[in-house]
Amino acid sequence: MILDCAGKSLDLSQPRVMGILNVTPDSFSDGGRFLGREQAIEQALRMVEEGAAIVDIGGESTRPGSAGVSLEEELCRVVPVVEALASVLPVPISVDTSKPEVMQAAVEAGASMINDVYALRQQGALQMAASLEVPVCLMHMLGEPRTMQQAPHYDDVVTEVAKFLHQQVLRCTAGGIARERLLLDPGFGFGKSLQHNLSLLKQLDRLLGEGLPLLVGMSRKSMIGAVLDVPVEQRLHGSVAVAVMAAWQGAKVIRAHDVKATAEAMEMVAAVMEGERFKVKGST
After folding, report:
1. How many CB atoms lie within 10 A of CB 183?
2. Which pLDDT belongs to residue 66?
3. Calpha distance 139→125 (Å, rounded)
4. Is-contact 180 228, C-beta < 8 A?
5. Catalytic residue IDs
6. Segment 131-172, tens digit of pLDDT
């Protein structure tokens, strides 16, 4: 499957890595590290060199308990970085936002995908995404970032996440967004306990029924810290492990901080999946 990102192609015939670029002071893992324009540009180029097939730029933290930022602040963080990278990155740029104004400004600056944790439920977001005609990732979240981890409850987390995503797909297609422009994200860590996250990962293939690409983001998250009892900076091995499990079950885009390790893991997953059809690079 080839996803058309405003003229730049994202080949999803095998699992691909989405590199995370947070231009924020308070993101849970790398807050403040890439807030400066030059640092952000260097990091994006580094991630592509390490194997990122798409770079996801976010200007508002959505970690548990985080407060929102103003429209003006998010625009100031995101748009200059997108503008600087659009002409130099060979891969698509995704903008991680829920605000329709940021979606528009980022796409006009050169972004070619929208990654929305609210699944286009903010006022005007669906209409804006439809008008921009770029791929959109719809994510499941219970509640909102400030409150989502306050005793989240489900009767059956996999069934309820699948139902939500199905309803959002119907809503988006009715609103003028073509199915072939949609990706789905179960929202690991967004309004989910450790057991909810583990159940979702164990049964991830149940979300493939929509026939749309799955994007997953578990990199360095608290579910890994809880299982391994390690701080954020020591979650590489756990992050790669869950990325492999997700890809093996059919996830097509893996959102990651540690691009090189994750990209190499995805190469191994693809080689095993291809089996006898796999060819060594450079062979004929």
Report:
1. 22
2. 62
3. 14
4. no
5. 221, 255
6. 999 999 999 998 777 666 777 889 999 999 999 999 999 999
